Amino acid sequence: MPAFDLPLLTRLSEADIERFRRDGYLIVERFLSDDRIAALRESFPNLFAGKFDTGVYPDEWYWREGMSLPDVTRHMANAWKADLTVAKLALSADVGRAAARLTGWRGVRLGQDTIWWKAPKTRSIAYHQDSSFMDFLDPALTVTCWVTLDDTHRDAGTLEYVAGSHLWPLTPLPETFHGQDDYRAQMKAAAVSAGVALPEPVLIEVPAGSCVFHAGEIWHGSGPNTTGDRMRRSIGIHMVPADARFSDRPGGYIYRRYQRTDDPSLDESFFPLLWSDDATRTAWLDGYCDSGRRRNPKPVVAA
Prior knowledge:
The protein has a single domain (9-291), classed as Jelly Rolls, CATH 2.60.120.620. The longest helix is centred in the N-terminal third of the chain and has 15 residues, at 34-48. Strands 1, 2, 3, 4, 7, 10, 12 and 14 form an eight-stranded antiparallel β-sheet that branches. Strands 5-11-8-9 form a four-stranded antiparallel β-sheet, with helices on one face. α3 (84-90) packs antiparallel against α6. By secondary structure, it is α+β, with helices and mostly antiparallel strands. It has helices at 14-23, 34-48, 84-90, 93-103, 185-194, 285-291; strands at residues 25-28, 60-62, 74-77, 107-118, 125-128, 137-138, 143-148, 159-161, 202-203, 211-215, 220-222, 232-241, 245-246, 273-276.
């Protein structure tokens, strides 16, 4: 069963790259197969019920059955460590190669994945810039591939972008993130600071199995799901440059735990190399996606 209907890289033209760098985002419709979409959808209830393929917890787990408010968007980070179906997408060389081409980076690592489950009648996610969360790295850069597992609709809390806002100054982390009444408030304030007229956001309405690549500096968020019957399930794959290192700045309350003493390099056990222009890739990735074990393959010795 193929993971993708058509490799992403073959679908990216020079005009697409120019559009991404101008607008800060690029839509690629229908790149996942129906079988892959179905398998990923099946993973969501298992993950939020704490049923993990590998027995390893994700790094963040926001929303618990019977404990959390029902109108809050369900969210999980680094589910690739827990679920192998998610891992096959989040650790994809195809996604990494496409991200490198769009950004011009020589290679990309996985920073983290994020699982988003906006069920009917759930609340908004505040506008933010992903790179605001990356101050613990040098360079503090990221690019995201947001993958839809349902047809997206404006009244079901689809993702929204402000085209060109990746060229505005980077702002500090938002004070609120989940369920803010005016979920565009931080973006509006940033527009005023940047001296631009209040922009009209672009609401992404695409078929299931599509993706949107977006720059880490672009302003984006999502409104409430006001429907009574539509799900909005999606996965974000957040990638960082292959040469990124831990910075001397404070921060990174989760991911700083993976820094070795007196060593700013990113350990491939936690920030695997998805793709680089010399065709190298973290050796254990493909085997892990099949077995859940992180073991480097043994070298073949010529007879």
